[in-house]
Amino acid sequence: MSYALSLLDKSPIPEGATAAEALQRTVALAQRAEQLGYRRFWVAEHHGNPGLAGSAPEVLVAHLLARTSRIRIGSGGVMLQHYSPFKVAEVFKVLASLAPGRVDLGVGKAPGGLPLSTRALQALHDKSPASGFDVRFAELDAFLHNTLDPEHALAGAIAFPSPPSLPERHLLGGSPDSAALAARHGWHFTYAGHFNGDPVNIERTVRVYREASGRSPSLALYALVAPTQAQAESLVGALRVFKLHLSTGQSVNLPSAQAAAEFARQAGVADYRLEETRPHVIAGSPEHVREQLDALSARYGIEEFVIDTPVTGFAERLASVELLAGAYATAEA
């Protein structure tokens, strides 16, 4: 077994709790992850969701960096379609200057919310035909490295400050095309296995990235550890992902059928198809979860897992993180 463990946290707000409490629990979880030896701690970006407090990952990253001292802290990820690549480069160069060698910039393609949130985020965008994600991604990489093409419309704009080292750069995705894009620009790639756990797609995507970059991608997935298998399965419950397919060709993953219907309503689309799936969750005792991770590492050559714990209760999340770290340490010993 030769892989690292990292965490992705969404700052969930359990029933009866507040956003302030949820964010403090994220801080406590990051501090405990550092003590336990996790490699990195990422925070997600979600908009218009009353059950999640993490709508501004760059702000939370800065706070977490100030409350920890060794663990890498980053975004998992910034939803690039909403923002100026120039501004994202500036923000993460500031963060990398505040905490050299500890900052991760993860970016993703998803909107991170429903259409009204997207509309509000993009209200001041240039109304000319929008550039695709690949173009924005290339611009972000160029602004980070200050290598923008002299013929580019924004040539001459330099993203300052200049940190001692750039943030470590990760693209989050779930397809061979995303893997190829990451490799083309020299970025790390994290496969979103918690949204697309199809073994054939994982294998193909991992192969594309490894052949193009010479590196192994990391694998993000749902995992929950409890003292017994029965306890873990009970905590996970009937977790579902609803993939909404709109007649416009857009598709998006949502946590409930109600959220999917609301997305379609806000998008102004009456014709849609809903695909209900049960995401793959590695749930069980410490030994069982470790064995499953061992098997995935061996099958796909994965050298790092980014664990998303799919429960809202802080005690359960903390226990899962501690039990998994204990099982990993035992196996290493």
TrEMBL record:
Residues 16-298 form the Luciferase-like domain. To bacterial alkanal monooxygenase alpha and beta chains. The keyword Oxidoreductase applies. GO terms for cellular component: cytosol. Keywords: Monooxygenase, Oxidoreductase. Transmembrane segments: none annotated. The lineage of its organism: Bacteria, Pseudomonadati, Pseudomonadota, Betaproteobacteria, Burkholderiales. Signal peptide: none annotated. InterPro entries: Bact_Lucif_Oxidored, CmoO-like, Luciferase-like_dom, Luciferase-like_sf. The keyword Cell wall biogenesis/degradation does not apply. This is Alkanal monooxygenase. It comes from the Bacteria. It comes from Acidovorax kalamii. GO terms for molecular function: monooxygenase activity; oxidoreductase activity, acting on paired donors, with incorporation or reduction of molecular oxygen.
